[in-house]
Amino acid sequence: MHPSKYDAFIDQLVATNTKEELNQLISANNSLLIPQLEERVLERIQANDLPADILPWITSLITRQLASQWLTLADEQYEAFLEQNKSWMLSDTAYQFLIDMAQHYTNDAEHIEHRIILLIDFAFQTYFSLENKQNRDRLLLGAIKLFSTEWLRKNFPKEWANFKQEIGIAYMRSKEGNRAQNVEAAIKAYQQALTLRTRHVMPIECALTQLLIGLAYQERIEGDRAQNIEAAVESFQQALIVFTQQAWPDKWAIIQFNLGDVYRKSIHGDRAQNLEMAIKSYQRALTVFTQQTEPYDWADIQQGLALAYQGRIEGDRAQNMEAAIEVYQQALTVFTRQTWPDKWADIQNNLGIAYQERIEGDRAQNLEKALESYQRAMIISARPDKWADTQNNLGIVYQNRIKGDRATNIELAIEAYQQALTVFSQQTWPDKWARTQNNLGSANLVRIRGGRAQNLEAAIEAFQLALIVRTQQSMSFEWANTQHNLGLAYSFRIQGDRAQNLEEAIEAYQQALTQFTQQAWPYDWATTQNTLGLAYFFRIRGDRAHNLETAIIAFQHALKVHTQQIWPVEWAGTQQNLGSAYSERIEGDRAQNVEMAIEAYQQALTVRSQQAMPYAWAETQHNLGNANRNRIHGDQAQNLEAAIQAYQLALVVRTQQTMPIEWATTQYVLGFTYQNRTKGDRAQNVEMAIEAYQQALTIFTPDLLPIQCFETSHLLGELFFQESQWTAARQALELAHQAAEHQRQQQYTYSRHLLAQQTANMYAYLVDICLNLGDKQAALDYALAAKGRSDAERLGAAQPLNQLVAQNPTMANYYQHIRQLQQKLEQLSIQLRSYSKPVAHNQRLDENDERQFRAQTIQQIIQTRLALRQALEELNFRFPLITSVQYTRSLTAANLIRLANDLEATLVQYFQCYRGWVAFIVTAHQVYDCVRLPETLQTILEEQVDTDAVLSSYQSKFPLKERLYFKSLYQRLIAPLEDFLPEKGQLFIAPDGILKRIPFGALWKHTSNNRLIDRFTFSVVPSMSFLFTLFQQAQTSEVTPLPPSDYLLSVVYPGDDPLLKTYLTEVYPESVAIAQHFIQVEWLHDEKAQPDRLIELCQQHAYSAIHFGCHGQFDNFFPEHSCLLLNGQLTVQQIVNRLRLQRSPLVTLGACQTGMTESTTGGDQTGLSQALFMAGAKTVLASLWSVNDESTRVLFEHFYRKRAEFGVSEAEALQYAQQQVRQYPEWQDAYYWAAYQIVGLPV
């Protein structure tokens, strides 16, 4: 540039005064280049040599002059003029020039039309030739601004429509900006073109635009994908009306090719039919495009045809895959690495997918070929998205690879997915980003290295990320696929609540099935049905029988598609699952269910061979053994032989070195089968059973696998017991005891209640064994360990946990730490059990990796269990009364001796061991002993107490039978203890099982007229652990109970109708008489005696005593439904969950059967009195049977008067009251007075 030349021109422009002078000056200097002129003006403005507003004025002058020249130039000069001013045309000034031209020079329409056509052509040639992408986009935007004017559409409709089509093409080719928005702009431009390009006016142009709009809808990102594909099909079909095979063979073939692509990708309608239409469309296109005439198009269509064969549903699956591989290889004869590297890489990528899915040939070799294809594709990496696509596929093949180390392969897969995600972001490639996130989740789902729990959490996170893009509306198939994978992750999840995880899994599978239908996506539908069946099989919530029925239906659905011929591996897996469901089925005939399970397992074994699928084969053999062991039909001895044979076959693969936990599991059931075997020598069978159990216990240790250890050592102990090998039996059962204690630490309070039931039989054996060995102290220790610790732990539930946390924030930290350790132990246990299981395609992790991971996990379990034990001890030391959040240690004989001494009482614990009843006696003088009770005791209990005959014997019309009954029980329950019992004093009795129904105070000697109540003041307690906890709370509580006669809550509801015989007329005078002994009384009578009002009052006030005068009801079958009949039912559940009694009051129940409880096999009890203790009561006075209304009134009047006037304990007050009732001749029989017992700790 020569500044002096431009400066002179600028100075002359500024100095001119008339329009004529300006025009002459501009014409004389038309050789000056506009951009350089503008640049020089800007320089002088910045140097303050020219005013800032002069530039637009000069530009406008130059634009008008150039417009005049542009119109008058000859055609041969026109292109030179545009070429000379190309850089200027990229400026905003040029766009204004073009617009000015279009608006001001309209008088010569023909000349203007000719010029506009030339200008449009030049603009697009310039657009596609420019290397600077920013300049290209500026030119594109400028052209849109110019040629979108209504003036151009009106005056030059053909050119305007041509431009709209060209602008659509430009948008589709553009690599700049947002891809989704570019496609939307292209579709809009094509649709605008079609407003003028109609089939009747411009048929060929219309068909061409329809073809282009179909291609755009194929790539559309926004909107519903199914609708986009349908729109593409419609556009292609419109184009085919004009572009026929005869008239336009090339374009007809192009449309057929694209129709094939659209049908192949379609998710609307029948999937199988769509793929068939795609194949036909590709084949039609190939009738025109041959390898000789159009090699590029021919090879491109071959690639689409191969993809259609890959996804084909109809026909033989294996043959379809072979056809796909053959077609890919044909395409590669044209698309070579040298001639078409990008296409060559694309086909290598797709060929890898085909080999990965291939059925014929060796599976491992097919995957290696897939790996080679992907690696070849990676050589060509010009396009980042193609490179990332191949990385994604490479991840898939590594994830499924058979050769090499399994753990390493999965790590390589994860690395490949992560590499792909460096290119695919949610913003730029949302679909591919979501696909890769889904695959990354799948890899973490089966990942071996790293923590199993953490891997599953990573999988869930990846699937949830994928679902941000994969929505049901826009990507229904992909959405369903990810929902299915999310279901798998929740099914396997270790963290969180197991029951809730399974619910999440079921929900995800059901969501997937809203899109996976049998018709559209049969394989995916069947796969999801199978996994849904497994989720229902393992489901915790809901009815177990219903869950199993749902599982069976799902497995049967899966087998409609997963046939042995087409999907043999999947078919065998579903048969295995179906067998498991039938094995545990509750509905239907049990014998028939087992037969169907055996048939399913045998079907599975036709595919699951030892050679091809050794781990799956061993699993099915193990399950077949279980089914034969449980078989009802056929010869039982032969069934057990078949079971043994199946277990022994399973152990060929399940070895201690390779699959230790599965090996131990099979050893366990093999031992159980030998224990029950009828064929062969009995002694030899016992030896083989013992050996199998002992082998299992080398893996099942108390620290690592407490549940399995307990079950195995328990059975081993029973076997030794049956063989009278007392020492060996004790060793085995003590190991079971250790395992139970470990599991008890690991469980939450509600789970310990179930554990108490499971261990009851073990303690029955242990007590018997210890007595046989003469170790009475150990026998007592185990008897105490067996009884009622869960009840004692639940005493702490008198306050909700949130209240405990609010009152004890320090305790909350301890509690949360313990819960975390318990959860970690559970997760580590699951992780340990998972190591030797196959993870995919019958493959397992490398033995060295497995050994290393198992050792690490074992060390973590040991460290975590130690930390848990220390945390529990710390919590017990700092918060001894809060038993609902801690592990209660087993009460020992030493504890019991101290308790008897502190209470100055005699303690009697009855216990039913394996071979009869025993009683343990501990006195205040630190003397304890154990006495075996007469063998005839159990007969009497079974014949009379267990059949409720005792209730009729209590009635006054059977006095003789009543006396004989109680004398008989005295001889068997009390007489054997006489040598250890004092003459009188306080007696605490902890009856076991059915003994809880016996009114001990009514028992009497046959040589005396005195009842036991005349000799002792006694209380009944659910267990000695329960009594010990009550005593500890009373001694260390910071809350002082109210004085005995301070404040009474009187609750009276005699019934609904005074005319009925059941109406309790005596409860009113009874309540008045009781109230006389209290300073303050709260009356809750008649219609006011509502459960909600009672609960509210107890939350607001502390009472010395609460007395109920009403009916009670005990439910033998569902004791938690037992209730007090107020103005509405006050049930056990309401008392436990809502009632909170402050400051440990006395509760007296003038109602029927309020002292009845239902005992579990673990010694824990459920009933009204037990519920009141859990609500916060210290002592409860309750009845064992339906009581007489009038004698009850007299009893309570004497009870409260004695307690108030003489300050005696509740036990002494009851002793006195019962003696007073017996003074009445008509009430001497036990029916009238013996029903009532003090339960708990009388003070």
TrEMBL record:
Organism listed in the record: Spirosoma foliorum
A Pfam family it matches: CHAT
SUPFAM superfamilies in UniProt: TPR-like
Protein name, UniProt field: CHAT domain-containing protein
Domain CHAT: 967-1240
